[in-house]
Each structure stands twice: as C-alpha cells, then as structure tokens.
Amino acid sequence: APLLNPAALLESLAIHGGRKLRYVVEVFGPLAFLSLLSPFRLGLGLPFLAEHLFTDMRLMTTIRTHHTADLLPFVFFFALWVLSHLLRWLPRSGKTWAPDKLAHAVAALLLATCFLFHGWSEAFHLRYHSISPHHARLHAVLAAIPPEASVSAQTPISPHLSYRKALYHFPDLGPAEDQAELVILDTALIERDTVRKGIAQAVAALPAKGYGKILDEDGILVFDKQPAPSRTRVGAGG
Distance between CA atoms of 80 and 86, rounded to whole angstroms? Predict the structure, then answer.
C-alpha cells in the first residue's frame, strides 16, 4: 500500500512532525548520535524506526512507553560499534591521542549527552498520573451513572463502568431493539487523529439514532436515548 500511495505515506510522516523530530533526538541523543555514524548497519533497524515515524499514534513517538523497545537494541549496538572503531582509529590517525585520555574524553562525552538528553528524573513523570480537575469532573460524571443503565463508552472509560448488565464499546450501541441508554465520551482521551475523526463522525450520527445530548463540558459528552415519539391514530371523522 505505501508503494501505491507514496503521497499518503509522506503526509503521515508530517503528522505530529515536531513531536517525531523530538523523538528522534531523544532516541539517538543520549549516545551522542553515534549510531548515525554507521548508517548502513543502522539500516537494519530502519523498519522499526519507520513504524514510529509513519504513525499518527502519539504513544508510538515517545521514549516513555514500551513501543521503543524494538528499536533500542540497534541504537545501542551500533553506537558501541562506532565507539570501538573510533577508539582504535583515532590513535592511528597521526594525532597525539593518549589512549587513556581518549577513553576518558569519550566517556565524559557520553556522560554529558546522557545528562543533556535524558531530561527530568523518572520521578518527575509521576505528575502525569495525578488527578487533574478534568479527571475529577469525569469521575463525578461516571459516578452519577445508574448501575442498572446500559452504556456505550470509549475504551478508556469502559473499565470504570463495568459490573453492569450491558456495556458497549463506542461506536457500538448494542442491538437495534435494545440500544444503550447512555453514551459517554471524553474527547480529551483520544490520542490518534484517525480515531478522533471516526468518533466525530459517529457522534454526529447519534441524533439520527434517537440520542440527545445532555452534557457537553470540557470535552466530556453524555447522550441519552430519547423516547420514540408516540404515534396518535387520527379517526376518519377528525
């Protein structure tokens, strides 16, 4: 498919372009970009790097998730390969490199780049798991949902609405004869642009399926199933 539509492939590369550039720096920077000095060998890891650069999923473009694990062995191995060749080549290059001083200089360089590109300690990432005002509002909305109500919600919300008779993953609303009574969404939890577009289309279709919006606050959306309009039979005489 990429060969049939190269333009779409290049467009996907531009999605979150700044974030992806920062990702490349965070991956190669701590080892002083030494891996890039062996481009032919690093080519073995390009398929793994490509899947991170051509995605629109934000979690694939950060070193703080497990998704980078497939790429890191190539980065480390080829950085070590380049480093070993530098330590052997520089003393033979005609310059007055003392072997012990050269090794110390390289170690100092790697230590400096590690500190420069590593960023904050992992302990600082705990702030990402704190409960924000938005999360508190979402928890309050979920707590108010009756346990007997059938619900359709997006995947991150579903675990908080378990232990009920019927729970569907949005945009699934359940069987036509017994659709979910409530639809609960939080647009702040959407990571991928492609998913965002699909959810927006499904939300736009809810009124036609008999759902009315009862809450729209800070990206939190709640719809309930509206009762079908009653049909009154009109007699022949008026």
Answer: 10
